[in-house]
Specification:
Its EC number is 7.6.2.9. One of its GO terms (cellular component) is ATP-binding cassette (ABC) transporter complex. It comes from Nocardioides perillae. There is one protein chain. With 371 residues, the chain is of the alpha+beta class. Helix content is 21%, strand content 36%. The protein has two domains: 233 residues, Rossmann fold (3-Layer(aba) Sandwich), CATH 3.40.50.300; 115 residues, OB fold (Dihydrolipoamide Acetyltransferase, E2P) (Beta Barrel), CATH 2.40.50.140. The strands form five sheets. A six-stranded mixed sheet has the order 8-9-10-5-11-12, sandwiched between helices. It has a six-stranded antiparallel sheet with strand order 15-14-13-16-22-23. A hairpin with a 5-residue loop joins strand 1 and strand 2. Bound molecules: adenosine-5'-triphosphate. Adenosine-5'-triphosphate binds next to strand 4 and helix 1.
Amino acid sequence: MSAPGPDGADLPPALVLRGVSKRFGAVEAVRAVDLEVTPGEVLAVIGPSGCGKSTVLRLVAGLESPDAGEVLIAGATVAVGGGRAVPPERRRVGMVFQDHALFPHLTVARNVAFGLHGRPAAEREARVSEVLELARLADKGDRYPHELSGGEQQRVALARALAPRPAVVLLDEPFSSLDESLRAQVRAELVGVLRASGATALLVTHDQTEALSVGDRVAVLRDGVVEQVGTPDAVFERPATRFVASFMGDADFLPAQVHHALLTCEIGVVSTVPGWGAADTAVEVVLRPHEVALEVAPPGTAEPAVVVGVEYHGAFLLHTVRLASGRTLRSWQPHGVRHPVGTAVTARVRPGLVPTLLVDDRAVSGPPGAP
Ligand SMILES: Nc1ncnc2c1ncn2[C@@H]1O[C@H](COP(=O)(O)OP(=O)(O)OP(=O)(O)O)[C@@H](O)[C@H]1O
C-alpha cells in the first residue's frame, strides 16, 4: 500500500516487516510478523508481557537482526533474515524510551542537536529551534533536563528523535514511568507534538486505553504472533480472536445458538444474523459490559440473574451478575444507578448490537464451512 505524496507521487510505506522472525535460544520471540505502516500513521503495538513488542521495535531500530524475513524503511531494505543489515545510525529511525535517556550534562538545545551532528551549524541551529517550537519548548532550550518536569523531558526526547527527520519514530512504552495522574496529560501533549510533526510512529505499549486512543491502527501481539491489525474500532468491536476480545477490554463469553438466522443465548435474543440462512450452529457470543443492560427483575421472575459484585468507577458502576447457569456477566451502569449485591435482575443485550461470534476461539461471520 502506498500513500499519495505531496506532489501526487506515491510514497512507499514508511515501514514494512515481511515474514520477520527472531529467536533467542529456545524462545521464538517474534514469529513471521507482517506489518506495514503508511507515512504519517501511528501504529500502536500492544500485547502482554513477553509477547515480543520490544523485539519488534528493536528489529526495526537495528538493535537486533531478524533470523528470517525482511525489514524495509521508506522503501529501502535495512535487514534481511540471516543476511546484511544496515546499522541503527543509518536507518532513519528516531527513538523515544520510557526513561527519556537524555544527556544530563547537556542543555535541552544541545540534547536536541545531538542527532544532527555533521550538519552545518546554521542548519543545525535552525532545525533545533524548529523542533523546540514544535514541542512547545522554545523557551527551555538553555535548561538542563533535571530542571524540567517529566512531561517536558519526554517532549525533549521526542524533539531529539524528530530533529533529523526520521522516516519512523519508535516509542517504547514512553509513558510507563509516569505516574497515573500525569500520564493522560503527558500523553495528550506528546501525541499532539507527534501529530503536528506529521511523523510516522510505532508505539509500543501494554496499555489498552493508550493503544486505542493513540493509534491510527493497533497491532495486537501474542506469543510473537500478530493476532490482529486494525483500526481501534475494529480491534475493539470486531476482534478476530477470543484473545483479542479479552485483551482489548473487558469481555464475557456466553454459549449461543444460531437458529433460522436468529442468535440467542442464556439472556435471550441477541440479534438477527443475516447471512447464516438456515444454519443451526453452536457459537459463543462476545459481550462487553457496555453492551449488557440490567433491570430489576419483576417479582416472580423465574431464575433471575443476581448481582454478585458492584465496583464504583466514578462516572460508571461495573456490576457483575451471576446467571442461572452460574456464568457471570458484567454490565456498566451509569453514575447513580446501583443495584446492590443480592438484587435479582434481568440481563439483556442492548438493542442494535452487532455481536462478535466465535467458533473455536476465532471470530466467524457466517456458518463454519461456508465459503
Ligand atoms: N536478548 C534476549 N535474550 C534472550 N531472550 C530474550 C531477549 N530479548 C527478549 N527475549 C525474550 O523474548 C521474548 C519477547 O521479549 P520482548 O522483550 O520482546 O517482549 P515484550 O512484549 O516487549 O515484553 P514486556 O512488555 O515485558 O517488555 C520474551 O520471552 C523474552 O524473555
